[in-house]
Design brief:
Layout lengths: L8 H6 L7 E4 L3 E5 L9 E5 L11 H21 L4 E5 L15 E6 L14 H17 L1
Antiparallel strand pairs: 1-2, 2-3, 3-5, 4-5
The structure holds guanosine-5'-monophosphate.
């Protein structure tokens, strides 16, 4: 059995107990900027319902997250004039998971540009600028 800890950072973001740079929200999903981006415009999509990861998530929530990731990927391609998008998702510590609320990474990619190393905080004003670009593109779609 996989247990869900409702004190995880994304649960706190969903409850409004921790700030996040929101990009998109609907009934079932929430999307926001990753504070340690692996690339320009890196954002995260999470279900609003509690789920530790892929292994215990409700399939309907997985589908909703996939649909939101698709929206963000399309918006990112246009907003940043990206050449591609990398979508990543990690499960359990051995699988590379660090935050234990199911999430999908959406990372815009550019020809010849490698992903940034993990664990480096981005500046708030830079993240806010990218978030605004994504919001504007989503609103135009
Ligand atoms: P994963 O669990 O998929 O390996 O990684 C968790 C991701 O969440 C990392 O990319 C990390 O940068 C991001 N992250 C960790 N803490 C926070 C936070 O407090 N706010 C935001 N927006 N992202 C976070």
């Amino acid at each position: 059995a996989y247990s869900y800890d409702d004190q995880n950072i994304f649960a706190k973001i969903l409850r409004g107990e921790m700030p996040a740079m929101k990009v998109y929200e609907d009934d079932k999903t929430f999307a926001f900027m990753d504070i340690m981006p692996r690339g320009k415009g890196h954002c995260l999509v999470i279900p609003k319902a509690p789920a530790r990861n892929l292994l215990d998530a409700d399939p309907a929530d997985l589908a909703a997250v996939a649909a939101t990731a698709q929206k963000l990927a399309g918006a990112a391609m246009k907003a940043f004039d990206a050449d591609g998008v990398t979508v990543q998702q990690f499960n359990e510590p051995a699988g590379g998971q660090v935050v234990f609320h199911y999430h999908v990474h959406v990372i815009p990619r550019f020809e010849g540009v490698k992903m940034n190393p993990p664990g480096k905080m981005a500046e708030t004003n830079v993240l806010e600028e990218f978030a605004e670009k994504l919001r504007t593109q989503l609103a135009a779609n």
